[in-house]
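pasting for ref
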Amino acid sequence: MSQEKSHNAPPAETPQYAQLEAQEHDEESIPLDTKIAQFELDLDHDASPSSPRIKVSAAAIIPVWIVLSSTVIIYNNRVYNTLDFRYPVFLVTWHLSFAAIGTRVLQRTTHLLDGTKDVHMSKSMFMRSILPIGVLFSGSLILSNTAYLYLSISYIQMLKAFTPVAILLISWLSRIQEPSRKLVMIVCMISTGVALTSHGELHFHLTGFLIQAAAVGFEASRLVMIQILLHGLKMDPLVSLHYYAPVCAAINLLVLPFTEGLEPFYAIGAGKIGWGVLLSNAAVAFLLNVAAVFLVGAGSGLVLTLAGVFKDILLITGSVLFFGGSITPMQIFGYSVALCGLVLFKTSGGK
């Protein structure tokens, strides 16, 4: 799945995009790509009154989050490429439908979604804020999952390092943030690093690259739109999932007939993939969002950023050691440059 949330600062102030950390989902906001994607948890860290009352130490929850986030990405990749169930629109829709039901069950049986009581959802807010952000969210999830049909796990993680750059560029173009010399330097640093990783990619696929680039653009646009449309509205990852999952699932259902049609259902009927795999895959993605609720209150923004960086490094290393992936020295150097830019972006406060 690891993205939807808002900061409490009004839009006239400098947006704190450096605090966008990790709802990957992998993209990495709701689950699928990570969906807790790596730039949203910090956004909630300062504005999460609805986080659970049970406090979990960072030392306890960060390893759990890293394992779940990595598992979602690896599991999805296995479904697409090992089991040859190459239907990302269907899988994203299935995950979101599972999440929509799961959040409503948790709302009635636990206190994890008490934050919904602080959100006064009107028809006007839904049409002006939730729906357009949901459209971008659906696009981000579908595209980021489709990229796994063409690109390796390690290369996709490297490309995701470009997300802060996309956020800054969109912020500058929309005039909600002014560029500074330091931010321009960071943009150049991350861009150079990502360019080097692409140049060093042994199995470069132009279609996959363009799809992942579009996914980054959709995700960055979504995060900027959250800052503009939902300022002052505080939602933790699970509350956001409660509102966005059914919207995105409905949007995806409209897309499904024009992309994959009935083929996923034929594949399931033919036994290409079992319901046990589908249920466990969606359950792991959903647990990732539950872990995110505890993570946002467990550490500082920098700690969460570093945890996300560590997770990506582990994922890239694991894909090489255990799944036969390949990376080149140029990619290692380029990704190191991009990560240094990412850490500078975080420590600068996005200014």
